[in-house]
Amino acid sequence: MKQASGEKCINLKLKVWRQKAEESNGRLESFKAENISKDMSFLEMLDVVNEEIILSGKDPIALDHDCREGICGSCGAMVNGRAHGPEKGTTLCQLHMRHFSNGDTVVIEPWRSRAFKVVKDLVVDRSAFDKIIQAGGYISVNTGGAPDGNAIPVPQEVAEKAMDAAECIGCGACAAACPNASAMLFTGAKISQFALLPQGHPEAKKRALAMVGEMDKQGFGNCTNEKECEAECPKGISIINIARMNREFLKSSILS
Amino acid sequence: MHWNSNRFILLLSSSIGKKLVMAITGLGFCIFLISHLAGNLIIYAGNDAFNSYAERLHTLGPLLILAEIGLLLLGIIHISTGAYLFYQNFRARPVRYKKKRNAGGRTIGSSTMPYTGFLILIFIVFHLVDFHFVEKADRSIYQIVLETFSNPGYTIFYILSMVVVATHIDHGFWSLLQTLGIDNLECMPVFRVISSAFSLFVGIGFGSLPVFITLIT
Fold first, then answer.
1. CB contact residues (below 8 A), chain B span 68-97, against chain A
2. I want to staple A115 with a disulfide (CB 3.0 to 4.6 A). Which of A30, A218, B14, B102 is the partner?
């Protein structure tokens, strides 16, 4: 894996959160990342570091990753205090090393929230998000013949707003970046994508109550409209979806 | 559609419900501040005008006491709910980041809400002691204002407090529109400007009073 040193390569000092298991104490451990091509992604840089760790007979840094195309929501870590690193609208796998300079010190930490337990190193358990989806993030449709296309008319601008909300990949950056560790952008987006469309209307009231209730139960904090989630969301999901969730929840709570 | 009291209790105990309580009580304070400022600006019209405004205000009698009790209740609810939310939000991240940077969403107002709120509480205590529970038998309210602001230390404390109030409102007013679900994509920038304008109006409106008093005495 050694690459020729040159202008295309940089050397970094990493400080990575290492934690053996949920119950063990973690600490920042220093590593050297040398001859890192600027064309690499952040995860590829960690792959290089991990190969050297493995060669030296130690335990590699555990991290979540899957598609490496910025669409699956698996990867994610705090890089120098920013969710998915310093670039706007990217996941960690789409963050490229050209955004770093030779000699930089990079601090890498897992998402921090009471609802996201650290499994190992940078891997956190995000099943709290799954529980919120299970509580109501779906529509119930009877099986049978496929409905005709355009049988249910949806105005184009409404479809666009629903799609904007549905872009959420559930990576957890919103809750990780939120000063209150709140999951309201995630829950707001998931409620909005259905609230906007006719297919979501029959279960809208039940959905808003159940999903917000589950979100609270999971131990996330309360939104104080700081907008840090929107700023860090790799999909640029707007906090307007939180306002819509608030509306949906109020409607469901007061009127029945 | 019918009223469902169980759901209402569930609402108030939820995260969004507590935010709603903050929003509605906050809105109550915003409305109070407008009427309070409208009254206080009469100071610019001089001694007689301000004293007669105060007299007429006190002829409201029981209505005034009702408003005071209302404000006290708003205060108790806003502060206790805010304190509980602050505690819950603190608990939501038991292990803090070693390194954390802002992504550009936060403002000075948004990141200091609990602290500016606490400072406003301290200000209100002093404010009530100085102007509400003060001995009024032998002097007019205009005289009390003049005497209180003749102390430069208090004047500086008052002006700084108004900066804190404006900072709190700058985030608070916009935030309550978002929490009430009134906010939408098209209106958000407008609401932000309205909120900042309102906070400046309140801050400068009240903050200019001691400056004016100092200049005329």
1. 85, 88-89, 91-97
2. A218
The string of DSSP letters for A204-254 reads: HHHHHHHHHHHHHHTT-B------HHHHH-TT---THHHHHHHHHHHHHHH
- Residue B132 CB: number of other CB atoms within 10 A? 10
Q: Please, what is the Cα angle at A210 between A204 and A215, to 5 degrees?
A: 125
For residue A160, the domain's CATH number is 1.10.1060.10
Whether A242 contacts A167, CB under 8 Å: no
pLDDT tens, per residue, chain B with 217 residues:
455 677 778 888 999 999 999 999 999 999 999 999 999 999 999 889 999 999 898 898 899 999 999 999 999 999 999 999 999 999 999 999 999 999 999 999 999 999 999 999 999 999 999 888 888 778 889 989 988 998 999 999 999 999 999 999 999 999 999 999 988 888 899 999 999 999 999 999 999 999 998 888 7
Residue A146 lies in a domain: no
Q: Do A255 and B16 touch (CB under 8 A)?
A: no
Contact criterion met (CB < 8 Å) for B178 and A239: yes
* Residue range(s) defining the domain that contains residue A107: 6-118
B100, closest residue in chain A (CA to CA): A81
Task: Tally the C-alpha atoms within 13 A of residue A214's C-alpha that lie toward its C-beta.
Answer: 21
Note the Cα A225 to chain centre separation in Å. Answer: 18
Query: Quick check: A186 contacting B, CB < 8 Å?
Result: no
Encoded tokens for A117 = 């337990």
Residues of B in contact with A114 (CB under 8 A): 91-94
Residue B28 DSSP SS3:
helix
- B103: phi then psi, degrees, rounded to nearest 5: -95, -5
| C-alpha atoms less than 13 angstroms from C-alpha of B151 in its C-beta half-sphere | 9
Provide the shortest C-alpha distance from residue B178 to chain A (in Å). Answer: 5
Q: Check if the beta carbon of residue A49 is closer than 8 Å to that of residue A15.
A: no
In angstroms, rounded to a whole number, what is the distance separating the alpha carbons of residues B141 and B147? 10
Q: Is B15 left (phi over 0), alpha (psi -120 to 50) or beta?
A: alpha
What CATH number is given to the structural domain containing A97?
3.10.20.30
The pair of three-digit structure tokens given for residue A156, joined into one six-digit string: 């184009």
Strand partners, A33: A12
Please report the ipTM that was assigned to this predicted complex. 0.91
What single string gives the DSSP state of each residue in A172-208? SHHHHHSTT-B-HHHHHHHHHHHHTSGGGGGGHHHHH
Bridge partners of residue A32, in order along the sequence? A13
Evaluate if pTM is beyond 0.90.
yes
Number of domains in chain A: 2
All residues of chain B having their beta carbon less than 8 Å from the beta carbon of residue A220 are: 15, 92
Is residue A1 assigned to a domain?
no
A113 and A38 in a common domain = yes
